[in-house]
């Protein structure tokens, strides 16, 4: 946001809709408060799972059921 570009100028190279860009900027505090590094860190923190994914913990070898 330091370059004071228009939203469309930011969205075009990213391949995103201008509405998505303005929504992200607004969510992160607006044009004056937005910091890309801080926003990225918060996004990674939100994406962290509280526990490992079930697919990551289950053995990949097939098991046979007892009949």
Please outline the helices and strands.
Elements: H1 7-14, H2 18-27, H3 30-33, H4 36-47, H5 54-57
What's the overall geometry?
elongated
What percentage of amino acids are in beta strands? under 5%
Stretches where pLDDT is under 50 for at least 5 consecutive residues are: none
Look at the structure and give the mean pLDDT. Answer: 81
Tally of individual helices:
5
**Radius of gyration over all CA atoms, rounded:** 20 Å
- Counted beta strands: 0
| Biggest sheet descriptor | none
SSE string, helices as H and strands as E: HHHHH
Instruction: State the helicity in percent bands.
Output: 55-70%
Question: In whole angstroms, how far apart are the ends?
Answer: 64 Å
Structural class: mainly alpha
List keywords for this structure.
mainly alpha, 5 helices
Structural features, described:
The protein has 67 residues and is mainly alpha-helical. It has one domain (7-54). Helices cover 57% and strands 0% of the residues. Helix 1 (7-14) packs across helix 2.
Question: Short summary of the structure?
Answer:
The protein is mostly helical. It contains five helices and no strands.
